[in-house]
Each structure stands twice: as C-alpha cells, then as structure tokens.
Amino acid sequence: MMNIFYALILLATWHYDLDEAKQLAQKEHKHILLNFSGSDWCGPCIVLRQEVLDNPAFQQMADTTLVLVNADFPRKKKDQLPARQQAINSALADKYNPDGHFPLTLLLDADGKVVYTWDGNPGLSAAAFATEVKKRADADHL
C-alpha cells in the first residue's frame, strides 16, 4: 500500500494554462515543458505520454525541475475540451506550434522563451529523456 501512495506522490501535475505555468515556474525557479498532443488520434503522442511522460522515471525529475503544460487537440467529439481550453490551446499553437506538428515538446524558460524543441517522439526511454531534459534545463541556468 505504501508503494502505491509513494508512486502517486511522485506524479508531477500537468497544467493547461501557460500563463499560470509561467507564474509557478518563476516562483519555483523551474523550466516549463510544453507538450502538444492529440490524445485520441496521434499514435506517437499516445506512446510518448504512456511510456515516457507518465513514467515515474520521468515524473520524478519533472517534479523537481519542471512545470508541465499539456496542449491537447483531441478530434473525437466525446473527447472535446471545453471552449475556453480550446481557445487557450489554439493560442499556444499559434505561438509555439504554427506548423501543427504532433507530438511537439518544447522546453521553455520561466518567461516562455524556447530553450529546446523535440519534434516528434524523441525515441528515448523515460530515464534517458529525463536526463536529456534536465541537462538542457541546467545548461540554460535559470
């Protein structure tokens, strides 16, 4: 039972509003990881989320280093987001993903400036991706 509780504690929280994420990142001196996904139609997005981003090896690093933001673009009617969230995600796409690549993952500084971009699934294990993200965040010297 304790292992389940410990695993739940390690799961970093996903945010859905970049402005709120920037405030939190500035307050906690963290970087932002912005992930564009198509949760119900994009196979590589689903694999990235299940095998890497939701993996405890990545989540543990993210909890101490990142504020996570997801901009999801589901296509199925049953999965549609509220209109306000759709507007937020569309504005994020206009600024950070104008070509509509999925998945697209960006490391941002606390002000929203792009530090690094992964176009597509990086093809790394959760631990390897965590190491790469942390290395790039540390190199940016918040």
TrEMBL record:
InterPro entries: AGR/TXD, Thioredoxin-like_sf, Thioredoxin_domain. Residues 1-138 form the Thioredoxin domain. Pfam families: Thioredoxin_7. The keyword Heme does not apply. Keywords: Signal. This is Thioredoxin-like protein. Coiled coil: none annotated. The keyword Oxidoreductase does not apply. It comes from Dinghuibacter silviterrae.
